[in-house]
């Protein structure tokens, strides 16, 4: 079993090496286990997907710190790949931010994402987002950096200022958050290739790009993103959008035909899925203790 310390060190080293990292979004233990076996360098716990799968609610500040820590720590415990987890706004004031960072670090995560939206926050590719003063977010980042036990626990600073205040303000905020101690910089929702190029080349720290299919930001190839200078690309919605379509197709077949025969060729092998979920250990245990 890989320790949390080893995961964090591995991610730090990978970020320092050439090439761009691609992080798939995980939102429940099935997606976490599936992504973990694929060979990614890092996984991303999506707030949107986690809140939707766990509570059946929109990503609009309705999930609590306890809700999110519960899921994040389960993902970290059940996987070998480093995970960066969405920490929303830190769930309150400066004391809450410190508590959140300590909780996520103790929970085994490799990093936390904190954003400068007003509470209650909203998904970064939906309307109606407002940001707090930059000076207030600088304090949050400083507190987050002070609260962590290890510098290998990464702090991702996100600004949502592009949508409401413009790109220049977003870039200015990122420089301030970088100076305050952020390790990875994240300007949410650039709306053109030109804006993406400007963001990627503006900083001397790793820059993250968030790709949401159907969102505001153009979906480009890995080669294009890497050439711009991005060090990390997260795909928070790809998996749950794929799952939604697959579920719709499967349920429609059951409703229309009363059978799964029409989608049988699109189903994961049952025995392989059972092994993915850890049944091999159960079978081995039963075999070892058969005489008992």
Q: Radius of gyration in whole Å, from Cα? A: 20 Å
In the CATH classification, which architecture applies? Alpha-Beta Barrel
Q: What is the general shape?
A: globular
Q: What is the CATH homologous superfamily assignment?
A: Phosphoenolpyruvate-binding domains
Beta-strand percent range:
5-15%
Tally of individual helices: 13
Protein name: Carboxyvinyl-carboxyphosphonate phosphorylmutase
Pfam families: PEP_mutase
GO molecular function, one term: oxo-acid-lyase activity
InterPro entries: ICL/PEPM (IPR039556), Pyrv/PenolPyrv_kinase-like_dom (IPR015813), Pyrv_kinase-like_dom_sf (IPR040442)
Description:
The chain has an 8-stranded parallel barrel, surrounded by 9 helices. It has one domain: Phosphoenolpyruvate-binding domains (TIM Barrel, Alpha-Beta Barrel), CATH 3.20.20.60. The chain is built from 13 helices and 8 strands. Helix 5 (94-106) links the parallel strand 3 (83-86) and strand 4. It is an alpha/beta fold and 292 residues long. It holds the Pfam family PEP_mutase. GO terms for molecular function: oxo-acid-lyase activity. This is Carboxyvinyl-carboxyphosphonate phosphorylmutase.
Q: In summary, what is this structure?
A:
With 292 residues, the chain is an alpha/beta fold. The protein has helices spanning 4-16, 29-36, 47-55, 65-77, 94-106, 134-147, 161-165, 167-180, 193-200, 222-228, 238-257, 270-276, 279-288; strands at residues 21-26, 43-45, 83-86, 111-115, 154-159, 184-187, 207-210, 232-235.
């Amino acid at each position: 079993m890989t320790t949390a310390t080893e995961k964090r060190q591995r991610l730090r080293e990978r970020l320092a090496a050439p090439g761009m990292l691609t992080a798939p979004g995980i939102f429940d233990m099935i997606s976490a286990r599936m992504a973990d076996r694929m060979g990614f360098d890092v996984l991303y716990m999506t707030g949107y997907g986690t809140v939707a799968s766990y509570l059946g609610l929109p990503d609009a500040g309705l999930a609590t710190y306890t809700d999110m820590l519960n899921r994040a720590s389960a993902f970290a415990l059940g996987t070998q790949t480093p995970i960066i987890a969405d920490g929303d706004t830190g769930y309150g004031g400066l004391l809450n931010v410190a508590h959140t960072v300590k909780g996520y670090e103790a929970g085994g995560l490799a990093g936390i994402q904190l954003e400068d939206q007003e509470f209650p926050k909203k998904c970064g590719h939906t309307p109606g987002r407002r940001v707090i003063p930059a000076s207030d977010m600088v304090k949050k980042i400083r507190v987050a950096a002070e609260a962590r036990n290890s510098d290998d626990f990464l702090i991702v600073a996100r600004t949502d200022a592009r949508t409401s205040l413009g790109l220049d303000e977003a870039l200015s905020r990122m420089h301030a958050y970088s100076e305050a101690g952020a390790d990875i910089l994240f300007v949410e929702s650039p709306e053109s290739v030109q804006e993406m190029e400007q963001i990627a080349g503006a900083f001397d720290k790793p820059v993250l790009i968030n790709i949401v299919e159907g969102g505001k930001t153009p979906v480009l190839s890995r080669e294009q993103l890497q050439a711009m200078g991005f060090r990390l690309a997260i795909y928070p919605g790809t998996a749950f959008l794929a799952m939604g379509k697959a579920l719709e197709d499967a349920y429609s077949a059951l409703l229309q035909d009363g059978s799964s025969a029409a989608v049988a060729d699109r189903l994961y092998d049952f025995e392989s899925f059972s092994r993915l979920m850890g049944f091999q250990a159960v079978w081995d245990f039963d075999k070892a203790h058969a005489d008992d």
